[in-house]
Amino acid sequence: MSSITSTPVAVPVSRPAVNPATLHRIRLLLTVLAAILILSGLAYYGYDYYRLDAVSRTQHPKHALLRSSGLVGIRLGMAGGFLFFWLYLYSVRKKVKWLSKIGKTKQWLDFHVLMGICAPILITLHSAFKFQGLAGVAYWIMVAVLASGIIGRYLYSLIPKSLSAAELSYKELETLYQQSVAQISEYLFVPAADLQGITYAPDSAKARAMPLLQAIGMMLWLDVSRPFRVAALRRRFITTGEAILTAGGLLRSSNQSLERTLSLARRQAWLAAKLAFLDRAKEVFHLWHVIHRPFSYSVLVLIVVHVAVVVLLGYY
Questions:
Q1: Which domain does 62 fall in, by range?
Q2: CB-based contacts of 125, cutoff 8 Å, min separation 6
Q3: Residue 166 pLDDT class (50, 70, 90 cuts)
Q4: Lowest-confidence region among 38-52, 193-207, 234-248
Q5: 152 lies in the same domain as 264
Q6: Do 149 and 248 have their domain in common?
Q7: With bands split at pLDDT 50, 70 and 90, how would you rate the model's confidence at 310?
């Protein structure tokens, strides 16, 4: 009787797929670190030049490099201009079908905000902190666009999004809110009455009845004051020594039960505030779009004019 020898078959080992959100956070973090290092290095290198007045700069050994038309200065302007034009890809992506399939809107928005911060810094170094004439007008409008962009990013965060980037309905928000309340009840370590200062938010009807500026102020106040209210509550349940180690309660303590409860309370507070101000946030966000877009396009036009004048008149 012949024996049959089976040959072992190699089974490929499947590697767990990396979460795309994790990859995005890593890419964003690396880009932020690179931007900080580059911009800090440029500012440090040029500090002794930038701090001088216009007359003294002409005698400085770095003048030929760091002046606006210098070897380094002109390249800083080119880099800042490139980043500024890159910002418009975020708007173009919404209109170009194949481009809209690359990544998620939130991921594009994160890099849009980052580039929107880096571009004005590069332009500031390019100008050597001199803001006169048409270039000065373009610069200050650009600063206004930067400020409004930061406000817009905050308003965007006030409108809760689902994974498909569609706005969450009131019903979905209410479901998440009730789940959060139930979890707090399950893991309660802090008396419910003590959590009310963290989880407070006006109801939707009251928020809709507020004047627009008051609603904006309330949204800002709830978000800005929440970490300090959490810290005040945390200090009541930790020792004096740990309060010092946690920066007065602003950082996490070693009490896992307490931190679990506070984490759930913060999530409940976030959902409650977003639920209350969802309509007003949409209203303000729409108004912001009306203001932000003309400013951003005007900067684009002024940059093109500035570059054209520099090239045609030979100021480079």
A1: 33-163+293-313
A2: 42, 43, 46, 50, 73, 76
A3: very low
A4: 193-207
A5: no
A6: no
A7: confident
